[in-house]
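User: What would this chain look like folded?
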Amino acid sequence: MLGTVDPSPPVAPAQSLWRPGPRRLARLVLGLWIFGTGEALVVLAALGNSPWTVFAEGVSGHTPLSIGSATIATSAVILLAWLALDVRPGLGTIANAILIGIAIDVTLSLLDEPSAPAVRAGAVLGGIALVGLGSGLYLGTRLGPGPRDGLMLGLHARTGRPVALLRTGIELSALVAGVLLGGRAGVGTLAFAVLVGPAVATGLRMLPGDPSRGRGERT
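Assistant: Here's the prediction, encoded as structure tokens.
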């Protein structure tokens, strides 16, 4: 979902994409759960969701799916598009497609929508901060790109178009489709678009690389 390009060095050999050690796996799961929790806080603020969650909310309004389930279903459809692209998935790819949606639904079921404007604004900012922290954790495991990142990288390899242009086009397409379906966009969407990049960069600086590397843990 919901995610940015991994700026870290290329991933390790293929087997390490599917056979992480305990620390690496724990970091992946924790990072994705925090990411999904952050997305849910932005939803609860009711000030506008991130582009892909606008789309998921729009889908959920026309189907029996919850926002989290729609997020998972969207990820599955995007992964099918990988069949035509030369992108190598990993355990992180599958975990990303499933865990973020579950974390969104769990968080939404546990918390009530705030009413005070200041609390709503705080939920947006806190949610973006959690997305950045979660990204720093899970991207550092180098266990494969998320579905949306993989789509972007595959299109880049196939077309030669700049990554920034492709990602912007993908995000805008999701946002427009989501709004047309009835998803909620607003000042929170703008805040997410402006702040998520710095938040992810901060998360990566705070939590660089895989913590198991150099500590004798098998990857």
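The chain has one domain: 19-206. If you want, I can go into more detail on any region.
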